[in-house]
C-alpha cells in the first residue's frame, strides 16, 4: 500500500475554446496555460495605430493600458505574453488566472483625441485547477481535494451577474456521468463557478480520470482532466506536482 504514496497526479487536458458573442459583449473561456486571441471588433486604421487595449477587473483602481496606438506597453507585467496581431486582435499566451477580466478594444485616431466609436469589450474567464495538498502528501484513504475554479472579471469563483451566458461547473467520471456524493467522493460547490471534488484515493484510482467540465448555456466548452498516474509513467516527476498539457493553438 505504501507505494500509492508516490503516485503523482497528472492533468491531461482538452481544450475547447469558446467565443460567445451576445450583442456588444464578447465572452471567452479558457484555461490556465492556454493561449487566447481577443478579437478587436472596432478597428479603424488597419495598421492598428488607432487601437488601444485596456485591461480591467473588479478591484483595480483603474484600467491598465496594455496596448497604446498599436504598441504593447513595455512597462506592462504582461508585455512578454502579449502580441498584437495583424488584424489588431490581442494574443495572450500562457494565460494566468490574473488575466481574467474585461479586455476592451478602443479606437483613437489621434493621440489625446476623441474616442472613435464605442468600446469593444471581451470578457475573459479562466478555468483553474489545484490540489488541496502536495502530491507527495497524498496518502491512501485520506481525502485530497481537486479544486476547479473559474476566474472571471469579478474575481475567483465569481460568476458574472447580468451576462447572458449560463455557466455550469460539474465533475464527471470516465463514463461521462456526473459525479455525486458517495462514501468515497464528495462534491462541494460554493458557487456556480467554484466546485471541489474530494476523493479518498485508492489503488484502483490509478489512471482513473476525473473531469471538471465547464458548460456555457448547457454546451460543453472547456474541461480539465485530473488523472492519478503510477510512478515512473511520466518523465516530469520534478517541478510542479501536476501539470497541464498545453494546446498548440
Ligand atoms: C496608419 O494608418 C493611418 C491611416 O491610413 C495613417 O494616418 C498613419 O500614419 C498610419 N500609421 C503608421 C504608423 O503607419
Automatic annotation (TrEMBL):
Recorded superkingdom: Eukaryota
Descriptive protein name: Uncharacterized protein
Source organism: Dallia pectoralis (Alaska blackfish)
